[in-house]
Amino acid sequence: MDIFLQQLVNGLVLGSIYALVALGYTMVYGILELINFAHGEVVMIGAMVALSVIGALMGAAPDLPGVMVVLAGILVAIPACMALAFGIEKIAYRPLRRAPRLAPLITAIGVSIILQNLAMLIWGRQYISFPPLLPRASFEFFGAHITLLQIVIVALALTIMAGLWLLVEKTRLGRAMRATAQSREVAQLMGVNVDRVISATFIIGAAIAAIAGVMVSAYYGLAHYYMGFMLGLKAFSAAVLGGIGNLFGAMLGGLLLGVIEALGAGYIGDLTGGFLGSHYQDVFAFFVLIGVLVFRPSGLLGERVANRA
Amino acid sequence: MNRVLEPLRARPLLAFALLAALLAALPFLVGAGLGNSWVRVLDFALLYVLLAIGLNIVVGYAGLLDLGYIAFYALGAYLYAWLASPHFGLHLPFWAVLPIGAAFAGLFGVLLGAPTLRLRGDYLAIVTLGFGEIIRIFMNNLNAPFNLTNGPQGMNLIDPVKLGGLSFGKTLHFHGLTLPSTYLYYYLFLAFTLLAMFVALRLRDSRIGRAWAAIREDEIAAAAMGINTRDMKLLAFAMGATFGGLAGGLFAAFQGFISPESFTLWESILVLCMIVLGGMGNIPGVILGAVLLTVIPEALRYIGDLQRATLGHVVVDPSDLRMLLFGTALVAMMLFRPAGLLPSRQRKREFAAEDGVAAQEQSSLYDTKA
Amino acid sequence: MTLLSVENITKRFGGLAALEEVSLSVQAGEIYGLIGPNGAGKTTLFNCMTGLYTATSGVVRLEDVEVQALKPHQIVKRGFARTFQNIRLFANMSALENVMVGRHARTHASVIGAVLRCRKTRAEEAGIRERAQELLRYVGLANKSRSLASHLSYGDQRRLEIARALATEPRLLALDEPVAGMNPNERGRMGELFRKLREGGVTLLLIEHDVKLVMGLCDRVAVLDYGRKIAEGRAEEVRNDPAVIAAYLGGEA
User: Which among B199, B225, B228 has CB closest to C101?
Assistant: First the structure.
């Protein structure tokens, strides 16, 4: 039972990070019907920039409290990622808005490759470890081991989701975003500056991605130029699971995928009589993705995406 | 250029003879000019041409974006290794293993395609990508409890192609002529590539090719013309997978060694790059793309030497530049020359089409006006 | 003989009923008109009959065979072809290639046949080409066979769509607003083409806005309004039907 609870907790923590990244995919897809393949790399860049800042600060001001250092890292990573996403949209996606569907998807893959390899040139091929700056307090909860970091991650993720929901539902920009998602043409006719709304969508997604990047590297204690790829794919799967284009769907899908993965990795050995082990963790996301698309392409909360049933 | 080509166009037989002679002499020319290691590059270029022709049926003809194509290459290669290596102690002849491997990959193509081909293009892309990763993860881990793939170490000592008494793995001495293994494989791969080209071209100009083109342009209209879109898409998928499996078998025999390393997502993307760069749908374009993207990274190695000569040490590892260049090429091609270097006539028009076609493609496939 | 019969077709999108209990029947050899104000459900009915939509309930019979559950390509194979209101040609193919695609359902070459290009395949391919040329001539596009579909004039695109549909050898051809956006002169010529088609043995089902054209051309007419059939009968009967007058006047008021 305690293994179950432990895996559930781990899954929820991981899932809330997936959910944050999934929000970026789902927002862009909702408005542009584009799979922003490079979003995972934005997460990675966020982690890398934050780690660079953290490293520099630790050298320059060794007396600064650890939490402050990490916070400073996040605060630099956020605008960096925002600028990056703004540039990506403007250079690689905007000129192709009227092109056949495959074209922007192919540029998105191209951008993803470029960012990954630039990161490799800048930060090197090796794993970069996250310095032990954060308090390591932990609690026992019905036999499950919960760290303070885990609680902070989940709390922060929930706060961000609530904030995003308020932004989309209650503000002018949010209304313009929803209008653009419904119909770009009509929104334009109604005086919405569609280009600006699309840019804003990318920027907001990137800001959240930056935070998620720091979270994931703090959680695993590692960052790597390749980390965004798998994370991005899983987050995309989460967005599809929840119903792409739907914010709540992304959150639900993220949490669910995290739990499925954690429980799957924990129990697959027993389930298959030891035939498959926990190193198949990465497979679950893809099976979930394929399963959802085949059996319920609209996802749990979304509109339908398949051509014809 | 045209002044050279024009007289040849008028005499197709002469052009054909010249081309045949050039292809036959190529390994000797390359071997003498650039060294024997470049003949190996040439062999790989042919393998990639074979892969690109296969993927082109899926992406270029039928318009289905497949990002997990390399999985079929992997399946063909592993099947070859299972049936012709000491791993299971089986040593079947290549002429039996290659078709089995191709059919095996084709079967997986059908299994993957049947449930997923009704998805819209970009979803199909992600699902195929997921499939590619699943296959790779399984190959990486299926060494325990039952050793099927030997895990990350890969499988070794795979039988070379043997034809009668001739082993392609050894240098052949024939009436004073010395043909190293790479030269022999060159001719073998060339034969398969020409065969694949022939099949691909014949398909394009057939009733089936027209159906693919119709589906690519407007799936609903194609269905309303009596085309069974699902079966036709599945056929394209299976054909592509079969070519991939065939290339995989050849790869395993040629290398004598395979491991999951060779079948990463980036290989899938590399092959996609080849057809995007060369020109989707157009066989000469696809061949050009495959050759360029195999040769350029090899040539990039000289950048390392150049840096050492001029700067004294290597500042940027050329192999790091490789992927960066590919990524940039993908983006630049889509932005500035989306139809590729040698586009097919129809594809060029599709990419050039402004609102009309794009809007049609963007709009949901339903007739929206009720 | 009844060629097509639609019985109590209902189509709902979510809560919205686009069609409610619509029934009609088309006799072999007639020109049957389907009219009604915008949004009355005419195209939805077409889509339900040709397999693009699955009706929520109801039956569609093509010569006694139920087809409402079949896929579009299966319905085409049974001799029921259509055109689209918002022309859906293969824009980047030539006119000839467009019509050649239409021959797909009536030809057989497999992968092996296509690759080996044996005598049978070659003969079939030549037949496809010949028939396509013939159909282009038939609709009056003989000299445009090499033009790109997207380069044709609007009227010619409509004609090409008809030629492409005819290539599937339909007994019943459904045309969705085939003269929309044409001038009176072009409309007259299209009317002639429809009569010629009927004489050639093709039954026509026509969605049209232009009441005058429908009345002059169609043997029988059905009127849809808000997803219901409000009238059906000979053109002059329908014209004087008070419900029809109310629907049209009410719609324009």
Answer: B225
CA dihedral B30, B34, B37, B41 (to 10 degrees): -60
Phi, psi of C203 (to 5 degrees): -80, 140
Domain of residue B154, residue span = 37-264
The CATH number of C2-79+170-252 is 3.40.50.300
- Residue B252: what residue type? A
For chain C, which residues make up each domain, given as ranges?
A: 2-79+170-252
Is the CB of residue C176 less than 8 Å from the CB of residue C207? yes
Nearest-neighbour CA in chain B from C41: distance (Å): 6
Q: Is residue B140 part of a domain?
A: yes
Q: Which residues, in sequence order, are CB contacts of A164 under 8 Å at separation 6+?
A: A23, A204, A208, A247
User: Do the Cβ atoms of C136 and C166 come closer than 8 Å?
Assistant: no
The total number of structural domains in chain B stands at: 1
User: In 10 A of CB A42, how many CB atoms?
Assistant: 31
Q: What is the pLDDT of residues C122-171, one digit of tens each?
A: 999 999 999 999 999 999 998 998 889 989 988 899 999 999 999 999 99
Q: Tens digit of pLDDT for each residue in B308-325? A: 777 777 677 777 777 888
Task: Answer whether residue B259 is part of any domain.
Answer: yes
pLDDT of C111-133, one tens digit each? 888 888 888 889 999 999 999 99
Size of interface B-C (CB pairs under 8 A): 137
Q: Which residue of C has its CA nearest to B201?
A: C115
Pair type for strands C80-82 and C172-176? parallel
Contacts of A266 (CB under 8 A, 6+ apart): A3, A4, A7, A278
The pLDDT confidence band at residue B228, using thresholds 50, 70 and 90, is very high
Q: What SS3 state is found at A274?
A: coil
User: Contact at 8 Å (CB) between B227 and B214?
Assistant: yes
Within-domain flag for B358: no
